[in-house]
């Protein structure tokens, strides 16, 4: 039988929603046990939140001052040691999970399964390659630990009405001092979080400038949406990089995705393929975004957005 | 200091790939191939560090079939001093690549190993982290800014919540994000010069690398297609359609 260890992602004493999505993938493995591990200098609050995720058997806390910041070089040896009692180690496929999980896999001497989209059997998974233009089925050997990152856009967040036990564990392993945290400059936003929002409005090169992006923010606020952007808009300096949606940015699956002034390069479409409804507004009727849009409108965004607000 | 750069050849990023009818792979015959975009950024960063006098030598490294010579010549034309070609006819997983790079790290003793954050074919995003783990050295993934001082790298990383800065003792492994730099174009005289730069060929089989990976790809499929949507004529019609779907 399977035993899954899920690595919790958290920041500033708050559990990241991606953790509950990784638990959903763990449930699909149909294991005996799903344990969540919280590595932190002060794990109590995060652990209490993780204990509410339905499906979780137990929350393990590893409190060490070195765990104050999520540095892969520090966390990986602890997780690798803890992994000894498990058949699977799952992490969300966020920048946190992508940073730490391969380091854990290498310490365990196994390949990692990146971006799990579906669980076909306890050791058989599907994942995207070539910017989502092909889906492969991969199988892990019966004898080895499965280390995987979970593509958060493919999994719903497990409900938070549970009450699992929390248990502090000590992991006796020497930690390196060669990597040190200096600082984190966070993007400040009162808008919904891009990766968990049910509605997302994204702007592209067609928006034209940083100032013009206000029109996108204004419309997003009107419908309660998060704001994203194409790589072109980020590279042009209209918005910060953490807003980028696509193969190399965030992969999202909102119920409604509105692409405004975005042509729809392959790399962008990768990030939105699983969106419920895709709306495209673009002045170029030939733009590739219209090939994937459920609803398309050809025209000038500066004319259409005010009209949309009026129609609301 | 010496910098080793991972330099993978992949299907060009503009190609719309096709899955083979038998589900055993994707069509790569007759398809345009080029350097992985993130690896071009890695090489560019190494060259800039050398131009600042922070490194003496930049070495491009690739793993794969015998026909990768022209690909390595590209890296040499961009400005690398020399190239190492680890040859194998087999498919190379990130874990195998990391184990090969570890052998090269032990042999070459670089101060830095710079890799792309992911290859755009397998989208694995693993090799750099795995190399750092096996080498027991720091990793600075998704780098958008790199500064070297007194045997340390101060690296700004693109993370979901914003920009994180970490400090890593050298030697270290850095993986590049898109915004680290703009790779230079290759000029014709550099292509001529690259022809005389050395390429060392090593058979992978002679390196004594553990070949076990524990994960096998069994099937390839095309993604589910989205059904063709509808065009609306104006804003009012769009709002009506979204309201009907219960989205507004």
From TrEMBL, chain A:
Pfam families: ETF, ETF_alpha. Residues 4-185 form the Electron transfer flavoprotein alpha/beta-subunit N-terminal domain. It comes from the Bacteria. SUPFAM superfamilies: Adenine nucleotide alpha hydrolases-like, DHS-like NAD/FAD-binding domain. CDD domains: ETF_alpha (cd01715). Keywords: Electron transport, FAD, Flavoprotein, Transport. Belongs to the ETF alpha-subunit/FixB family. This is Electron transfer flavoprotein subunit alpha/FixB family protein.
From TrEMBL, chain B:
It comes from the Bacteria. Keywords: Electron transport, Transport. The keyword Ligase does not apply. Residues 23-211 form the Electron transfer flavoprotein alpha/beta-subunit N-terminal domain. Gene3D superfamilies: HUPs. PANTHER family: ELECTRON TRANSFER FLAVOPROTEIN BETA-SUBUNIT (PTHR21294), ELECTRON TRANSFER FLAVOPROTEIN SUBUNIT BETA (PTHR21294:SF8). Belongs to the ETF beta-subunit/FixA family. This is Electron transfer flavoprotein subunit beta.
């Amino acid at each position: 039988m399977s035993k899954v260890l899920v690595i919790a992602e958290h920041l500033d004493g708050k559990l990241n929603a991606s953790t509950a999505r990784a638990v959903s993938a763990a449930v699909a493995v149909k294991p005996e046990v799903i344990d969540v591990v919280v590595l932190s200098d002060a794990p109590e609050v995060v652990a209490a939140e993780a204990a509410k995720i339905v499906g979780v058997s137990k929350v393990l806390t590893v409190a060490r001052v070195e765990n104050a910041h999520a540095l892969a070089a520090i966390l990986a040896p602890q997780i690798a040691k803890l992994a000894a009692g498990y058949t699977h180690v799952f992490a969300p496929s966020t920048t946190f999970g992508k940073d730490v999980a391969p380091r854990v896999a290498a310490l365990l001497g196994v390949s990692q399964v990146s971006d799990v989209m579906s669980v076909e059997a306890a050791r058989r998974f599907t994942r995207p390659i070539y910017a989502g233009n092909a889906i492969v089925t991969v199988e892990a050997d019966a004898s080895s630990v499965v280390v995987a990152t979970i593509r958060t856009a493919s999994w719903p967040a497990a409900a938070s009405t549970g009450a699992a036990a929390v248990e502090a564990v000590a992991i006796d392993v020497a930690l390196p001092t060669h990597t040190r945290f200096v600082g984190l400059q966070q993007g400040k936003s009162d808008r919904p979080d891009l990766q968990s929002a049910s509605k997302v409005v994204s702007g592209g090169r067609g928006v034209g400038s940083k100032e013009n992006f206000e029109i996108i923010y204004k419309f997003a606020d009107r419908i309660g949406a998060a704001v994203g952007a194409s790589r072109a808009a980020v590279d042009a300096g209209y918005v910060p990089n953490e807003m980028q949606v696509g193969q190399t940015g965030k992969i999202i699956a909102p119920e409604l995705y509105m692409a405004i002034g975005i042509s729809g390069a392959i790399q962008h479409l990768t990030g939105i393929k699983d969106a419920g409804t895709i709306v495209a507004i673009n002045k170029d009727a030939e733009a590739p975004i219209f090939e994937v849009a459920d609803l398309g409108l050809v025209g000038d965004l500066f004319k259409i957005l005010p009209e949309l607000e009026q129609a609301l | 200091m010496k910098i080793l750069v991972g330099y993978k050849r992949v299907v060009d990023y503009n190609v719309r790939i096709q899955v083979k009818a038998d589900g055993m792979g994707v069509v790569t015959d007759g398809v345009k191939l080029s350097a992985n975009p993130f690896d071009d950024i890695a090489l560019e960063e190494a060259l800039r560090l050398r131009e600042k006098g922070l490194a003496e030598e930049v070495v491009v490294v690739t793993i794969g079939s015998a026909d990768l010579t022209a690909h390595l010549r590209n890296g040499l034309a961009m400005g690398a001093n020399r190239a190492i070609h680890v040859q194998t006819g087999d498919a190379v997983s990130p874990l195998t690549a990391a184990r090969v790079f570890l052998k090269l790290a032990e042999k070459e003793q670089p101060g830095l190993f710079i890799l792309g954050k992911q290859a755009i074919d397998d989208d694995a995003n693993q090799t750099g982290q795995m190399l750092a783990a096996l080498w027991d050295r720091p990793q600075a993934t998704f780098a958008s800014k790199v500064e070297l001082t007194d045997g340390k790298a101060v690296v700004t990383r693109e993370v979901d919540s914003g920009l994180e800065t970490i400090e890593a003792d050298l030697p270290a492994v850095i993986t590049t994000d898109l915004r680290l730099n703009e790779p230079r174009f290759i000029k014709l005289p550099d292509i001529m010069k690259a022809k005389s730069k050395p390429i060392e060929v090593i058979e992978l089989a002679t390196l004594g690398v553990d070949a076990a990976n524990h994960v096998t790809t069994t099937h390839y499929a095309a993604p589910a297609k989205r059904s063709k949507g509808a065009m609306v004529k104006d804003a009012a019609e769009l709002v009506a359609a979204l309201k009907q779907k219960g989205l507004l």
